[in-house]
Design brief:
Elements lengths: L6 E6 L6 E7 L2 E5 L1 E6 L9 H7 L3 E5 H6 L3 H6 L2 H6 L4 E5 L2 H6 L4 E3 L4 E4 L6 E4 L1 H10 L4 E3 L11 H25 L6 E6 L5 H13 L4 E4 L8 H12 L8 E4 L4 H9 L4 E4 L1 H7 L2 E2 L6 E2 L19 H5 L2 H9 L3 H27 L3 H12 L5
Parallel strand pairs: 4-5, 4-14, 5-6, 6-10, 10-11, 11-12, 12-13, 13-14
Antiparallel strand pairs: 1-2, 2-3, 7-8, 8-9, 15-16
Helix pairs in contact: 6-7, 7-8, 9-10, 10-15, 11-14, 13-14, 14-15
Length: 378
């Protein structure tokens, strides 16, 4: 297999586009579908690398924008890249920083050459071009790099969406040129990103253009940006159907069971989100019968495990009552245990999804899981 052919399919579901496979990356094989925890500052909040290894994760995210600003990619490069800096043995995917710049709308200016923005930390001015985004990620020694793109929110005009899609295509070309010319023996894979907002014509055009660059993998951008769930599902399925079958497909920013199951059904292989860890710290915990809000008074004397069907060490060793106590007292241990559980719950869900696809029973599994997951009312 050449360096740029990284994906192998192993099974395809009989009634949906769901599939299993694996991605060969510099720090090991990643089995798909895969949920990737988000480690914004080169750490998943409230979870050590040992915790992530124990749960079974093979790839995590780090955020180019944040690491570029602090501590700086030059420092991380001196440490041997993200792996030398953190000692994480698995793979790293780094985003390009495009979404963070998108979220800084009042403090950024987009041109054909790149994005000028002000740091959210100290207000200092910076310029990020598609070439620089690649340079920074190569300094981080990412296993998967993302091109710089232009993300648009739900409800923008066709003109604005078209402009963003045009720039994303042009930046894809520049990103790949820089990656090819500068990589030498660097083994990280660059992914392109499809944009087009919520226009079928723009999505089709963007998918054709990004696919023509023959990236090792392709991401679907511009979804989960405030649109209704039904619209998300429609455009996810539509866009995924336009992408090559022999490359990994990645949709950014989804991390609930409902969204993950929909993505898998549409043929998506990779997804990530801060939701499971952020909501864990804020008191929302996954169970097979739907999420619970641990601060609720009903759990004061509830000495049962968080989820009796979950085999994670939090559910084996701690009660709802104790977790509620830790949360109310703002104990650091609460964030650690809650994060562990939510990540372990999603990882276990992914394992069950893979098994159901391999057995040709994904659609039945999805329906049964969601029926149980939506049965709780709090």
């Amino acid at each position: 297999m050449s360096q740029d052919r990284i994906f192998t399919r192993t099974a395809v579901d009989t009634t949906t586009a769901a599939r299993t496979g694996f991605i060969d990356l510099p720090h090991g094989r990643v089995r798909t579908p895969v949920f990737m925890p988000v480690g914004t500052n080169a750490t998943v909040k409230a979870a050590s690398k040992e915790t992530l290894e124990e749960i079974g994760f093979e790839i995590i995210l780090a955020n180019t924008y944040h690491l570029y600003l602090r501590p700086g990619h030059e420092l991380i490069a001196k440490a041997g890249g993200l792996h030398g800096f953190t000692r994480w043995k698995g793979n790293f995917l780094t985003d390009s920083g495009g979404f963070q710049v998108f979220s800084l709308a009042p403090f950024r200016k987009i041109t054909d050459e790149g994005v000028k923005f002000r740091s959210h930390i100290d207000g200092s001015e910076h310029f990020l071009s598609p070439e620089k985004a690649v340079d920074v990620q190569m300094a981080l020694k990412s296993d998967v790099l993302m091109q710089l793109d232009v993300c648009t929110e739900y409800g923008v005009s066709e003109k604005e969406a078209s402009s963003a899609s045009r720039l994303t295509t042009e930046w894809a070309r520049k990103s790949k040129d820089r990656w090819l010319s500068a990589r030498g023996d660097f083994r990280g894979s660059l992914f392109g990103i499809v944009q087009g907002n919520f226009s079928r014509n723009l999505r089709t055009q963007s998918a054709q253009e990004i696919s023509s660059f023959d990236f090792p993998g392709i991401a679907i951008g511009g979804l989960s940006v405030g649109e209704p769930f039904e619209v998300f599902c429609e455009y996810l399925e539509f866009t995924s159907s336009l992408l090559p079958e022999d490359k990994p497909r990645y949709v950014m920013g989804i991390g609930t069971p409902e969204y993950i199951l929909e993505a898998v059904a549409a043929g998506i292989d990779m997804f990530d989100c801060v939701f499971p860890t952020r909501t864990a710290r804020n008191g929302l915990l996954f169970t097979a019968h739907g999420p619970i809000t641990i601060k609720n008074a009903k759990y004061v004397e509830d000495f049962s495990p968080l989820d009796s069907g979950c085999g994670c060490r939090v559910c084996r060793e701690y009660s709802r009552s104790y977790l509620r106590h830790l949360f109310k007292e703002k104990e650091i241990l609460y964030a650690m245990l809650a994060t562990y559980h939510n990540l372990a719950f999603l990882h276990d869900l992914i394992l069950k999804i893979r098994y159901s696809i391999d057995c040709g029973e994904f659609d039945r599994f999805r329906k049964d899981f969601l029926a149980a997951y939506h049965s709780r009312t709090e």
